[in-house]
Amino acid sequence: MEEIKFTIDGQEVTAKPGQSVLEATLAAGIYIPNLCYDPKLEPYGGCRLCVVEIEGMRGLPTACTTKVTPGMKVRSETPEVHQVRKITMELLVADHPLECLTCSLNQRCDLQKAAAFLGVDQSRLRRSERALANDESNPFFVRDFKKCILCARCVRVCSEVRGLGAIDMAKRGYEAFISPFAGLPIADSICESCGECVDHCPTGALYVRGEAILPGKEVKTICPYCGVGCQMVLGIRQNRIVKVLGDLTYPVNSGSLCVKGRFGLDFASSEDRLKTPLIKKNGQLVEATWDEALDLVASRFKEIKKKHGGQAIAGLCSAKATNEENYLFQKFIRAGAGSPHIDHCARL
Amino acid sequence: MTNSISEFETADTVFIIGSNTTEAHPIIGLKLRRAALFHGAKIIVADPRRIDITQVAKLHLRQRSGTDVALINAMMNVILAEGLEDKNFIAERTEGLEDALPAIKEMTPERAEKITGVPAENIRQAGRMFAQADRASIVYAMGITQHSHGTDNVKALCNLAMLTGNLGKEGAGVNPLRGQNNVQGACDMGGLPNVLPGYKPVTDEAARKVFEEAWGVKLPEKPGLTMIEMLNAAEKGEIKALFIMGENPALSDPNLNHTRHALDQCEFLVVQDIFLTETAQFADVVLPGASFAEKDGTFTNTERRVGRVRQALTLPGQARQDWQIIQDLSNRMGYAMKYDSPRQILEEINQLVPQYAGITWYRIEKKGIQWPCPDTSHPGTKFLHQDKFTRGKGKFHPTPFIESAELPDKKYPLLLTTGRQLYHFHTSTMTGRVEGLEELCPGGSVEINPEDAAGLEIMDGEKVEVASRRGKVEAIALVTEKVPKGTIFMPFHFAAAPANMLTNDALDPTAKIPELKVCAAAVRKVA
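Output (structure tokens, whole complex):
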């Protein structure tokens, strides 16, 4: 595919065919403030922060909805562009709670980043606050309407990515807010609690309960639930899964997860986990050492094999275990125990 | 799956039968929804229940549970009667159509209407919509296989795909959705009684020899018992010792009273798991293993993609890696194993399983690889059977319609079918320990049609008793038109209302899969 050359503030940049000015500029490592743009979604042109000047075009077009053409001359840092962006940002900040330090998105917030880039330090506008109460009906995530900037990324993720459309923009102008059908709480709507809207919210308007703690490390692995096999990034802190994200680069799920994969992994740290081997004595399972347990199993298996042959032993391996574990288990049953009886729950 | 998950968005028609895709396989469900909404794919859903995916479907066929063969044969009847079959594909790539014809010819849409309850005109539309598409894909799951004639159901679907030339090309295929994260891999690795790793039949002497040389032992020459047969044999005392790793038959198997009696009767039961499951409670020895987040290795998904599993957490208490437990036990039994890591086990798999030969530890680091992958320069296989089938020509099998083993009667007048829900998984060993999921879906319900409920004077939310010939359970009635009149539905996740106390353990004679999707039941209000 042929690359397209254009300039941004005099600097030559190359774009791929079909790319928008915003995409190509961001890809070149040059920041244009933006809030409603999302690489997974169709261009929206809603937040008006990415306005630029383009030679030969009237007014200030939005970079996210304008496709690059060869030789295009774009200016992102002119006084006029800056003034428009700054007023837009001041309007956004005027009713945004200034509680950044205690916000779960602190330092990861796109609004914070854009405001800092534009140098919005003091709003010249009268402060106001939107009076809607949080929607806390979902057990996994909360919607804080006061922090919502109406970029509609959540609405568009739900319809464009999930094909569901559980939420939409309600009312108009200053009264506008994001709402499920008929203004119901989200838990009473068709929402499937996948949490993908939360991943795409640029501010702290949608946040996962208890996720204020940042992970200390991240590990990529595959979801333990159904056979689709989505890849996920687990955020780990103090030997606990504190955050789960879909892996955007994996071909199976491209960043999407379902409610179980996103929010249903804490069982790994459950208090109910088995922590020692157990042996049944007088009808009760009691704690034992590994040597006691494995010696008992080995001696009973050997005894049964000697007396009745290997075919008196049977093994069930697991659709939850890895390939390596299953391979080893069937090898053990067939070669170690000498039995043909190996199966698992493929039929259930 | 013959084809890949990403190909659903390129299909012209998708025929979903016996799969509640959006709940049981949510990410494939969303791809199918998008295929319908944004890519113009026509979706045909055949399911007795009004499942969510029907909202984007062009056609919803509500066949009576257990009558899939009649429905599929009738679709083929229409295709042949109207000359819509792919004559080139049939001539060049297949054989045996004449043997399959009688069952298809006799199943006219009118006859199928009487059996399935689906209007003949809708069957005609479905047949045309499927046959006239350039790329038509079939999606199915346990709603097709868990029948006493499950093998016939699958064969009928394969016949339909071959009749219309929908195999060996992108966006088409016969695509079973596997229910567990690594059920595909467990099968690939020879976790089945009739085949060695890589699907080599145990009865094949040459295949056996390869493994006998690699493993240094003589291997059993006959296929072993399947899961349900094992439990029956344990009950009779023919199997003395049972070693179960990460499975919970005491909740997942049909006819639980019988299953639990068998586990109780087993002379020596060893269970390796992460929780004290319903099954582990019967054990003589319980061995604590590792959860998915605590291990390194590989999983193989439903589209044959082998991906990397990476350890994120340390093991709790004295729990151990499952492969180390097996190795330690094997060494104590006198059969030596000396692996130092899962990677070394995968290297042995690369040597012995031709489909996995090129799927090495570092090659699958980022995106995984789909088998078959015969060597380390091969990119993997997106869809199967491109130029020829594994056996050469694709074979049509005759699939005459057979009724389910147990049908509703006077004493048990309702048809009970079972399945999964979005918020829970299998026996809820994992999801039952996540508070939020329990809150969204507390479980233990039975769906019943308003007409049936009215006849039994049952109101929505009332406690009822559901009984079959094998047992009874209490559940909360969910009165809904999601289920058709005469059919009730229960999820099988919950120990408190275990649907499998009721289900029938009649087996398919070939696949030995139990008939979990159809049995006769009765419902009454609990005073």
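The longest helix of chain A spans residues 290-308.
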